[in-house]
Structures are given as structure tokens and as C-alpha cells.
Design a protein that fits this description.
The chain has 220 residues and is mostly helical. It is built from eleven helices and no strands.
């Protein structure tokens, strides 16, 4: 990506951060009226996402050589979900020993691995982990996977610059097919649509099975 394009993408990420912080600030300071807070923001967010993905589809359709661009992607990208998941497990092991070494948490390694194995699929992860490990651990799993999605949106340009063009897709995990797809494409280019969609679909299907495996180790 050219330097000018990177600056524009970083500017967009800063705008996203500012918008998020502004929303938090308006609620905490009581500026927003209570009547507004009763609105169904989840449905509104879904409709906004649908509209955003529509425009992503339009931008893809306007690329005359999109198929040729996709064909030029290296075949090794098929292994991207496997490396992303291996990284998540490795991070879980590191986090376990750090937390235990500083007496910051008594969570077992399978619990930490289960929390981090959602790969951004926070809804199913929170339910499965909560049922197996209790509501408190399920809530942590929900927050951790929401944080993965948020950090991918905010830090995608930096991930791409420091770790390569596939880093944001790997970070997005299951969300690479929906919520983080626009920022991934804006950061790494239109050809990344196929990679992001593949990675997102892979984790959407695989996460329930991966979580079942991890949680079986915990129950055993």
C-alpha cells in the first residue's frame, strides 16, 4: 500500500476511534436523553452493517479484473486460518503462564484457551463457554472476542504495516466475513475480499467444533 493510502486509512481509523469514544462520553456524561437510550441500537447497527456490506459488494463489482487479482494470490493463504488459530492457542499458553507467574488469575489453561478460541465469534463463544465454565467466564469470553473485533477495526492499518497484508484478516477471525471486512479491504485492497471471506467462513463453521474440543479437555 502506498504511503498516501496508508495515511488515509490511518485517518479513517482515528475517526472510528473518535466516534467510539464520543459515544461512550455522551452516555457517561448524560448528554444523551434517556429516551434515546431505549432505542434498539443492535438492530440499527445490523442495518448499518448491511448497508456497508452492500457498498463493499458494489466496490468489488466495479473492479473489472477482480478475478485476475484473486488468482494472483498465493495458494498458501489457504493455510491462513490454521496459522491464525495456532497463534491464538500459543497466545493462550503465554497468557496462562504470565497470569500464573504474577498471581493475576487462577484460570486454568483450558479455560483461557476456550476464551481465546472464539476467534471473534463472540455470540456462540459466550454461550458455550458460559454453559461449560459458568456465567462469569462466559462474560469474559464475550468481552475478549468483542475486543478482538474492535482492535481489528481500529488497528488494521498498523497490523498491515507491521505484520503484512494478511495480519488484519487473521486478527478478524470469524468477523472477517462481515464486520471487519470493510476495513480489511480498505487497508489491504479489494483482492483480500476472497481471503477474508474464506477465513471468516472457515471460523464461523469451525469455532463450535474447536470450542467443543477445548471444553472437553476442561471437563476431562
Amino acid at each position: 500500500m502506498l504511503k498516501g493510502q496508508r495515511r488515509v486509512t490511518m485517518r479513517d481509523s482515528l475517526i472510528i476511534v473518535a466516534s467510539f469514544l464520543l459515544g461512550v462520553l455522551l452516555v457517561l456524561t448524560g448528554v444523551l436523553p434517556k429516551s434515546l437510550l431505549t432505542l434498539d441500537f443492535e438492530s440499527f447497527s445490523n442495518y448499518t452493517l448491511y448497508l456497508l456490506l452492500f457498498f463493499v459488494g458494489v466496490s468489488i463489482g466495479m473492479e473489472a479484473d477482480i478475478l485476475q487479482q484473486v488468482k494472483r494470490l498465493p495458494k498458501k493463504v489457504l493455510l491462513l486460518p490454521l496459522f491464525a488459530y495456532a497463534g491464538a492457542i500459543l497466545a493462550s499458553i503465554i497468557a496462562y503462564y504470565i497470569l500464573r507467574g504474577f498471581n493475576l488469575s487462577a484460570l486454568s489453561l483450558p479455560k483461557i484457551a476456550a476464551i481465546n478460541s472464539g476467534m471473534g465469534y463472540y455470540s456462540i463463544t459466550a454461550i458455550m463457554v458460559g454453559q461449560a465454565c459458568g456465567a462469569e467466564i462466559g462474560s469474559i469470553a464475550l468481552l475478549v472476542n468483542l475486543l478482538r473485533e474492535l482492535l481489528t477495526v481500529l488497528l488494521a492499518p498498523l497490523m498491515s504495516r507491521w505484520f503484512g497484508r494478511y495480519a488484519a484478516t487473521a486478527s478478524g477471525g470469524a468477523t472477517a466475513i462481515d464486520t471487519t471486512l470493510p476495513i480489511i479491504m480498505k487497508t489491504d485492497g479489494t483482492p483480500m475480499f476472497a481471503v477474508a471471506a474464506y477465513c471468516g467462513m472457515f471460523f464461523t463453521i469451525a469455532v463450535p467444533f474447536l470450542l467443543t474440543l477445548i471444553l472437553s479437555l476442561f471437563s476431562g
